[in-house]
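Design a sequence for this backbone.
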C-alpha cells in the first residue's frame, strides 16, 4: 500500500515527529500557492512503519498533516505483475 500525505498552505515543510527517544524528519515538498488555488506539500511512502508513525503524530491528529490519497497493490494472475488501485480522499 502507498499513502500520500499533505500539508495545506505550505510549499515545503519538514515535520519533526517524536518517536520514542528519537525524532524523525519527514520532508513534505511540491506545494504551491497561486491565484488558481492551493496545492499541498506532499510526502508519499509505502513503508507501513512510517505510515503508522505519521498517523500517530500530533500533527496528523490536529489535521495539520492529512491523508490525501492511498493506492492498494493488486497482484495480477500473471507472474510478477503488480498494479496499483488509487483511492482519493
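Sequence:
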Amino acid at each position: 500500500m502507498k499513502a500520500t500525505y499533505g500539508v495545506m498552505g505550505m510549499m515545503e515543510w519538514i515535520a519533526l515527529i517524536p518517536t520514542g527517544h528519537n525524532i524523525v524528519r519527514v520532508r513534505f515538498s511540491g506545494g504551491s500557492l497561486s491565484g488558481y488555488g492551493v496545492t499541498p506539500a506532499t510526502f508519499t511512502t509505502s513503508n507501513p512503519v512510517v505510515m503508522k508513525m505519521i498517523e500517530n503524530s500530533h500533527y496528523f491528529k490536529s489535521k495539520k498533516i492529512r491523508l490525501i490519497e492511498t493506492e492498494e497493490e493488486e497482484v495480477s494472475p500473471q507472474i510478477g505483475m503488480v498494479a496499483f488501485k488509487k483511492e482519493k480522499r
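The beta strands are 2-7, 13-19, 22-28, 32-34, 37-39, 41-45, 66-75, 82-88.
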